[in-house]
Amino acid sequence: MISFSISRVEWEQAAPLLKTVREKVFVCERRIPKKIEFDRRDHHAVHILVCDDHSQEPIATGRIFPTGEISRIAVIPNFRKYQVDKLVIKALISIAEDLKLDEVFIYSPLDAVDYFRKHNFIPAGAVFMEAGMPRQRMVCSLEDITNTKVYLSH
Q1: What is the CATH number of domain 1-101?
Q2: 0.70 exceeded by the pTM?
Q3: pLDDT exceeding 70 applies to what percent of the chain?
Q4: Domains of the chain, residue spans
Q5: H-type helices in the chain, by residue range?
Q6: 17 vs 24, 41, 57, 60, CA distance in Å?
Q7: Each residue of 7-34: pLDDT tens digit?
């Protein structure tokens, strides 16, 4: 049976583990230059780290800022079939709730807009280019998520 540990971590303590996941996904797989992938903003974010309980290896991550911006959601390819991404999003939303935020947002690649729509995010503003990729700002009200959780739990 597969199981995972999800931790809220700070960059200073967990950078090597977070970098392992992000390098595999963003630098190697998606060919984003390292200098763009790793920015000074990492020090100002709260990060989620997911590890495989069996191997203790880091398999997923994501970050959120006090502004509500969610970014750098990454899952190692072999673990994507287990929907670990949903665990990361749920953990980031939980942090947003702890921070008493009204909404969260993400700058989604265009090919992921439908994915984020399924998680109650809605497009906001015009499409723009970032790191050579077209992106769409997607916003999600925490009230909508809370209402969804209540609905889904019945």
Answers
A1: 3.40.630.30
A2: yes
A3: 93
A4: 1-101, 102-154
A5: 11-22, 34-37, 84-98, 113-117, 142-153
A6: 11, 17, 8, 10
A7: 999 999 999 999 999 999 999 998 888 8
